[in-house]
Design brief:
By secondary structure, the protein is an alpha+beta fold. Helix content is about 20%, strand content about 55%.
Amino acid sequence: MNDEKRAVQIPHSIVLNSRKDLSVTGVQEVIGCDEEVMTVRTSMGELTITGLRLHIGSFNRGTGELKIDGRIDELMYADAEPEQRGFFKRLFK
């Protein structure tokens, strides 16, 4: 239980440089990964990263920092509320 509370309190951020270097903080666990899809649990929900030649450069479970390189095509949260997912779609409709 203490680990869960501690993990939720880790700040979450995403920094993507030139679609090839991705840094994610607030990562609690790497759920699965291959060269095209990586799924991680963050303090803000489950995040799926898709692309080509994806590779974990480093992952520090203690600090929650994850670095991924490769070609990043998409970042998607699995547990977003429907209203949150559709906000931009409605805005630009």
